[in-house]
UniProtKB/TrEMBL annotation:
InterPro entries per the UniProt record, alphabetical: PEP_carboxykinase_ATP, PEP_carboxykinase_C, PEP_carboxykinase_N
GO terms, biological process: gluconeogenesis
Organism per entry: Enterococcus aquimarinus
Catalyzed reaction equations: oxaloacetate + ATP = phosphoenolpyruvate + ADP + CO2
Similarity remark: Belongs to the phosphoenolpyruvate carboxykinase (ATP) family.
Record's protein name: phosphoenolpyruvate carboxykinase (ATP)
Pathway: Carbohydrate biosynthesis; gluconeogenesis
EC code(s) of this entry: 4.1.1.49
Record-linked Pfam families: PEPCK_ATP
Record's keyword terms, sorted: ATP-binding, Lyase, Nucleotide-binding
Length: 553
């Protein structure tokens, strides 16, 4: 009986045209992994040496903390690699097989040509595990051309390489009737019809091609896109967010935060709270929830953090492994050190080791006590509690926030404009209604409490991180008083000086009505966009209409 998680090999008698795990896209991508031009690299230490010698890499004089424990050379240094004009993810490049308007035959032909064009250069192959507990471990395989050693090294750091310990763990992991993940990458690819590049997914067969894109985040999120979809098909909630657990005097408090990059998700998840509590961190970006037990599992061992809050004298710098899109200068000792805080460009990034969180775990058996939707919506005070499970899921499905410098968007796009990103997950490749129903079940079956954190501004006042963290601490300590949120049933807020909602003010009342109408318009748009692929149940629209009625009567 097969024990390992995902499928890499097939019986000859099973290799047939009607096999559900085979497809044109899958065959095209996987076949490239077996070419004479593929160089397997199994050790992260070998990937480090390749990156260290790469012409595009800068070797700083900053040592890697705990290098041996990370399977790196003892004298390993923090490496720096910089891209060109584009320093963020390009959402417009995504195409997903199975979604309306995406022609599989067209993209199969395009992909065959792309791989043919790239066949005259050599590629590194790396193999990693996605998912850090035996209940969910997925094998992922990556091809990256020679010349992009920095991204290849970063990939093996971001996910878990198959060292001896993880080979054994993977052999004992829960089996799934799912393919291994295969990702083909060629940053040099160019096509006149795709000036922004192309990220092509066949999520049901767990393959992807990342073409014409250099930014490392494309590799990371493409892998997570496939892993999340696999988890979703097998009884898990796919989560773009962070989880931490507080060890209190007579209980634990486990919370999850959901937000886009730059919303405060990592700041909240990794905060030490002045050592007031014993805090355990699962992860700040990618995890899954077992829908039956409520247990959570991290998908990655490291953190891909923005460096805008890490000046050179920050304690966090010593935990960095490799950096992208940051500067380098000489210090007073004539040593090469980092120039961070987005001085060089926006969205400077670094791979940070798990040692940055001393109480890091990869799996929590306790179910979530609370979910926090992180928004940047000026109509909302710093903290709102949602007591209605359906409404909690509705607000998650209409999570209002702002874009950030982590995204490569057109020049005319206003990063300050309010946008709706359901469940803070732009990487979903299955219908939105499925996430809505699963989160609704989380709030009903698991009895998880739901809050909204506004980390933007309210009444013209910015909401700084210390205000947000203080309110979370009050909730944990059960000292946060909540009062009804005006006439809106199912919502209450915790009063904070300078951030008081005033429903007697026609200006504020209209501001909140406008925000709710924006959510209603989004739901209505989803009913028809892409032939209703992301249509939500009618109850979501009805529930918001009820709130609007409460506000206007």
């Amino acid at each position: 009986m097969r024990k390992m998680s995902t499928i890499k090999q097939f019986k000859r008698t099973a290799i047939k045209k009607n096999h559900p795990l085979l497809s044109s896209i899958k065959s095209i991508i996987e076949t490239a992994f077996y070419g004479n031009n593929v160089v397997p690299i199994s050790l992260v230490s070998d990937a480090y040496h390749l990156a260290r010698k790469s012409p595009s890499v800068i070797v700083t004089d900053l040592p890697v903390e705990g290098a041996l424990a990370l399977d790196l050379p003892e004298d390993a240094k923090i490496l720096v690699h910089n891209d060109g004009a584009i320093v963020g993810r390009t959402a417009a490049a995504r195409r997903v097989i199975g979604q309306p308007g995406v022609d599989e035959k067209k993209y199969s032909a395009l992909l065959r040509e792309a791989i043919f064009e790239g066949a005259n250069k050599y590629y590194y192959r790396g193999d990693v595990v996605v998912g850090l507990n035996e209940n969910f471990m997925v094998a992922a395989h990556l091809l990256v051309p020679i010349g992009y050693e920095a991204n290849f090294y970063a990939y093996l750091l971001n996910f878990q390489p198959f060292n001896a310990r993880y080979q054994q763990r993977y052999q004992q992991s829960q089996p799934y009737n799912e393919n291994d993940l295969y990702l083909y990458c060629d940053p040099d690819w160019r096509h006149p019809d795709y000036p922004l590049g192309l990220t092509l997914f066949d999520p049901k067969r767990n393959v992807a091609a990342i073409l014409g894109l250099r930014y490392f985040g494309e590799l990371k999120k493409a892998t997570l896109t496939l892993a999340w979809a696999t988890a979703h098909r097998n009884g898990y909630l796919a989560c773009h967010g962070g989880v931490k657990q507080f060890q209190l005097a007579n209980k634990t408090y486990t919370m999850a935060t959901y937000g886009l990059s730059g919303s405060g998700k990592s700041t909240i998840t990794l905060a030490s709270h002045g050592q007031k509590y014993h805090v355990t961190v699962l992860h700040d970006d990618a995890f899954i929830i077992d829908q039956e037990t409520g247990a959570t599992t991290a998908l990655e061992p490291t953190y891909f953090d923005k460096t805008q809050d890490y000046p050179m004298d920050s304690e966090q710098v010593k935990y960095l492994l490799t950096c992208q899109n940051v500067g380098v200068t000489l210090d007073e000792h004539h040593q090469k050190v980092l120039v961070t805080e987005d001085i060089r460009n926006n969205n400077g990034r670094a791979m940070k080791s798990r040692f940055a969180t001393p109480n890091r775990v990869d799996h929590l058996t306790q179910s979530l006590d609370a979910v926090y939707w992180i928004m940047k919506d000026e109509s909302l005070p710093p903290v709102i509690r949602i007591d209605d499970p359906m409404l909690a899921a509705v607000f998650g499905a209409t999570l209002a926030t702002q874009r950030s410098s982590a995204e490569n968007v057109a020049d005319h796009v206003d990063l300050q404009a309010l946008v709706i990103e359901p469940f803070a997950n732009p990487f979903r490749c299955y219908p939105l209604a499925e996430d809505y129903l699963h989160f609704k079940q989380l709030f009903t079956k698991q009895k998880t409490t739901c809050y909204i954190l506004n980390t933007g501004s309210f009444n013209g006042y910015n909401i700084p991180p210390n205000v947000t963290l203080e309110m979370i601490e009050k909730i944990i300590d059960e000292t946060a008083g909540f009062t009804p949120f005006g006439p809106v049933k199912g919502l209450s807020y915790s009063p904070v000086p300078w951030y008081q909602p005033d429903f007697d003010s026609p200006v504020y009342r209209q501001q909140f009505i406008t925000a709710m109408k924006r959510r209603l318009a989004f739901i209505q748009e989803m009913n028809t966009k892409n032939n209703g692929y992301d249509a939500l149940p009618e109850e979501t629209m009805v529930r918001i209409q009820q709130i609007l009625l409460e506000l206007t009567t």
